[in-house]
Amino acid sequence: MNPEDAKIITLARSARARAGAAEGAAVRDETGRTYAATTVDLPSLKLTALQVAVAMAVSSGAEDLEAAALVTAAGTARPSDVAAVRDLGPKAAVLVAATDGTLRATLD
After folding, report:
1. 7-38 CB burial, b ≥16 within 10 A, e <16
2. pTM of the predicted model as reported, rounded to 2 decimal places
């Protein structure tokens, strides 16, 4: 794993731990900027961590994604999460890591 991918996994783990959330995610855009997020689970708003990270990138003006990372106990990314990443970054790798940061899968 390259250092930039390790960085977004670390950012996702940190966001998850800080918020005490079920999942953490981070994305890297075409300029190298990173956006970290967690699951949003409110009575009137429910978003996955990857959906929030992609939304943050879009709202900050990102035009493409290079990579995305999801830290989850589930072991895989939901199809809707991968679709959100692909909407902005059709070629972005989606890294799925366990809660300890161990890379479990790379979805190309």
Report:
1. bbbbbbbebbeeeebbbbbbbbbeeeebbbbb
2. 0.94
State how far the Cα of 53 lies from the Cα of 37, in Å rounded to an integer.
Answer: 5
The token duo for 75 is 């072991």
Interval 66-100: pLDDT, tens: 999 999 999 899 999 999 999 999 999 999 999 99
With beta carbons less than 8 A apart as the criterion, state whether 95 and 75 touch: no
Structure tokens at 36: 């970290």
Distance CA 78, CA 42 (A): 19
Q: What φ, ψ does residue 19 adopt, rounded to 5°?
A: -90, -10
